[in-house]
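so my prof wants the structure for this chain in the tokens format not the other one, which i didnt know existed until like an hour ago. anyway here's the sequence
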Amino acid sequence: MSERRDVIVVGAGMAGLRCAVELRVRGLEPLVLEAADAVGGRVRTDEIDGFLIDRGFQVLLTAYPEARAAFDYAELDLRRFVPGALCRRGDRFTIVADPFRRPLAALVGLLAPAGRPGDIARVLRLRREALQGTLPELFARPETTTAERLNELGFSPAVQQTFLRPFLAGIFLEHELETSSRMLDFVFRMFATGATAVPARGMGALSDQLAARLPAGAIRLGARVAAVKPGAVVLASGERLEARAVVVATTGLLPEVEPRAWRSVTCFSFDAPVAPVHKPILVLDGTRGGPVTNLHVASALAGGVAPPGRALVSASVIGPSGTATEADVRRQLAGWYGAVVTDWRLVQALHIPHALPVVQPHLRAPRLDSGIFACGDHLQGPTLNAALATGRRAATAVVGALAR
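here's what i got, hopefully its the right format
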């Protein structure tokens, strides 16, 4: 019989890695089992033809309290987006300043010709309310959808279409903005109090930093778990591993905590001879004509993600596989940037069916059964902060249970 472990953590994504690191800090020796060939789960960076490409458009909001506790920001060499966005309106782009930290400046570009002066007051009100109270109090507020919240605040159709809806659609990965209004308040607070950044070597650096804090042999790759039992896991190979506790940091193994659905996205990554945008700024489709919701030049943010003399352009299309073809994307972007788009080489078109779990923001207990615990953003809310928080909370629950 194999040696009995302290704790087995199933899944080496953000939640599982944070849990394992916290367990080791508290004197336990975890074994992390990961089905894939590398750590990170949904937060990975792939190297393709000399380009470093994240798995979908992802950013680190530096104000995330759990991220501040979990990561060494200096070591990550963070590269920050320019506050604000370039919004496509008709046949031109409008620069919109950061509405979260510079709300008055932000609305200048949006108020003419179609916006209303009252939109300034509405942004200020949303900002003020988002910053009030503690985070637990924020997530206990009366709840509606994000779309209903924007309408209740009275934002003009022009401001919603040009900036708010495409911007929030890119965050929540859904156009109808059915996401909880609590999530709107939360992300508004995070954008208002911190920067939007990406590590110089891509978002995968977050996973790598956590994994580096575990000893050699603590992570076993290519180990797919077929079943979880109190005090044991069974691998797809038939091997059985025993432990004093098991933490499930992935989906597909515990039906009682499965998300009801997933948001999906396809990321088109292009190799361009010349960058269409030379600033590290987000570009939004303010016409909502699609299929591209947002675009950014990753190499303008961090030059090391592309070979010398090349630009890495990333465009996101929300929805199931087949929502848009490469030709559809090129047609839209040619309308923005002209015939030069035909010179762009497609490096990767990656569809991510399980990009964000569809869950209402809540706080689910990490302990599910005798010896079985769970963590992951599907237990608290679809954010990196939630994934890290649930990993930490699961580690605390495990330590408390084993100490009895």
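also thought this was worth mentioning. The mean pLDDT is 92.
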